[in-house]
RNA sequence: GCCCCCGUAGCUCAGUGGAUAGAGCGUCGGACUUCUAAUCCGUUGGUCGCAGGUUCGAAUCCUGCCGGGGGCGCCA
């Protein structure tokens, strides 16, 4: 029996009790889904519900009296071994060993789909993250979202949402010209302009470009800036795509800011905002009255010299995303951009949308690196910044992704290179991956010793205390994934996997899947293999949601 | 000045109103002729920053304060 099935059974009990007149509440006061959770203390049973505490006031009953009533009825449900009322009115539920063990079969039948849900079914989500300028390598500031944004996309999809992952390419504006001027200067062996790009990669870029297109140097100077700019743009965009590909982060849409202007999206955006009546002119500029919706000042769309602000692109881009049918537009930004939250929310409101529903801005705190107890600030490759490529080279994709996704983005994160490259228990990625490798190893050994799942499955034999714990953890997975999606917090999946790995290691220590020596193969061995393989499936599914590999051997 | 995030064990951090607040590391002590010991078991460890409030119940929600980090542009 899965917790979802138990929850449904408990809800049926509520509905029946109401129909009998035993539970005096209105039909709409029966919760759509009844919370069933694992209790902290094992001795409190397999599952617990606080539904009696929540409904007591509405029913005008004492919480314990209501709990007693529900307990008596729930005990009658097949698969439920016992129901105890504890404390102020908790229902502590213990399942039949066999009913609990059935979960192993459920998981293996679902396979890679176990953990998927329809929690966000019907929602179309636009997920924009990283959105770096194509003027240099992706750096440490981008890595957090490269990992977490990608994992969030996977988690949202697992919860049933339609997800479009989008990278906004800031390929317009004076920074692009500064970039072109910097490459050109490097190509001529001249000093880089003060306001240009000073990383070592600029010189490498100049060398590559000149090697490919030597005739660029013969163009008139004014044309050279644009030519080097475009060549550099192509190189950097390709390099960003390449490193993100190596990192396992995939985008559905690379949205060029230029196309926003050439496609008429900017005009359509302005039109939308004018219709809603929030555009005005003052001091020779065109403004959006974002203060109507809580922003601390109004924002300029068109400067007094007639040029468009970056904010104008932002507004048009938002309107464009919505016009493409996305219900929710999620922006993943760094802490240094938190000032954008107010104005982005106001943009949504100015466009006639609900800023509480149609737009979400998630802020990730900064990431720092530590090695040998000292902060790492410099990169050989880029001169002044640490790149995503550096991080991959130093710690590998799995360690980097896992370390980044296991932390809440609300907290600043310090990655200790020494720790996350260590192959020991204090490196959580190895702890979880090793658990998976161990399940695979047990499967292989079982096969070679003639222990086959097909020969028997008798879940009543999974009666060890460590098996009840492991089954409980496995049952939680769909709820964890759905919650991670709803709260936009993929780190919950990683934390869950660490607990699951721990429950598995403990079980492994107590319950053998394969016989020792001449001992015959029994149904206990065969049934335990089901549990081993179910655990393997959940570990693999969870690691996949984080974009981390699930090794067969380590 | 205003805004955002954080403050939980010696350290790094989980814990979106529930029961006796948890994990890893660290300390100290155990378990390997192993279904891989990259593991497991035990031990040690807390005024959940402080003060009020909300309620059957607060680490969690609200207010104020203290401490740390980040941000405020007709830049991009």
UniProtKB/TrEMBL annotation:
InterPro entries under this entry?
aa-tRNA-synth_I_CS, Arg-tRNA-ligase, Arg-tRNA-synth_N, Arg-tRNA-synth_N_sf, ArgRS_core, DALR_anticod-bd, Rossmann-like_a/b/a_fold, tRNAsynth_Ia_anticodon-bd
Q: Which catalytic reaction applies to this protein?
A: tRNA(Arg) + L-arginine + ATP = L-arginyl-tRNA(Arg) + AMP + diphosphate
Q: Which residues form the DALR anticodon binding domain?
A: 432-554
**Family matches, as CDD domains:** ArgRS_core (cd00671)
Q: Phosphoprotein: is it a keyword of this entry?
A: no
- Motif 'HIGH' region extends across 132-142
Alphabetically, the GO molecular function entries are: arginine-tRNA ligase activity
Q: Where is the protein localized?
A: Cytoplasm
UniProt keyword annotations, A-Z: Aminoacyl-tRNA synthetase, ATP-binding, Cytoplasm, Ligase, Nucleotide-binding, Protein biosynthesis
The record places domain Arginyl tRNA synthetase N-terminal at 4-95
Superkingdom of the source? Bacteria
Pfam family for this entry, one: DALR_1
Its EC number(s): 6.1.1.19
HAMAP family (alphabetical) = Arg_tRNA_synth
Per UniProt, subunit arrangement is: Monomer.
The entry's family comment says: Belongs to the class-I aminoacyl-tRNA synthetase family.
Q: What is this protein called?
A: Arginine--tRNA ligase
Task: Identify the taxonomic lineage of the organism of origin.
Answer: Bacteria, Bacillati, Actinomycetota, Actinomycetes, Micrococcales
